[in-house]
Amino acid sequence: MSHSLHRGSTPLLISMPHVGTRIPDELRGLYVERALLSEDTDWHLERLYGFARELGASLLVPAFSRYVIDLNRPSDNQPMYPGRNNTELCPTRFFTGEALYRPGCAPDEAEVRRRVERWWLPYHTALGEELARLKQAHGHAVLFDAHSIKGELPWLFEGRLPDMNLGTVEGRSCAPTLRTAVAAVFEQQRGYSHVVDGRFKGGHITREHGRPQDGVHAVQLEMAWRAYMDEAPPYAWHEAKAAAVQPLLQHLVQVLRNWRPAP
Q: What's this model's pTM, rounded to 2 decimal places?
């Protein structure tokens, strides 16, 4: 299976498009050896948000690495952040800028289209269908796109990221009251730095599916790895850090789950 879907009982769907680590056997020989470790994965998020099922959330989780295809990029490969370094629909570089593929082995347009059909479309079909189910059942749907990243990556952004980076496409992907509610979760605590619509304003999933006028509201969180794990290889889960941040994330998920649009 290219992904797994757990159907919950509340209006909330949590998407984790970058947690997959698998690279198909037929592609492994195309990559440099370093790429086979999938270092730019959103590590351990399934475990970190393990409480979400008990809170009634739906969860959508891919199996394959973003190095195969990036599920949070548009299928036409338009850059998410024009004027900056971006990784593509089928990335050709690590987040540090070096080449992912052996010389002459990067995917051509035909191969990119094949990967869209095999891995990108099934994920996005499942995403759209689950949001439609939730909206039908509850009158609205809330999409939480969960991500994490190393806090310092000069090839992608300057300086050091805040611990928590909320994205609402500058308020366009959700109702203003939801944006205010999720921002308040972080404003009410002092343990973690945060920003709303800073460097990460929301990727393709948030931009495409966040349509508050149609009853679907989307929020992205890009969390710095240092909040819950070791940022150096082998990118291990950090028990104490994870235990410290989980109550904050649980509060966030509860707010997303419980929010209702104004009548």
A: 0.95
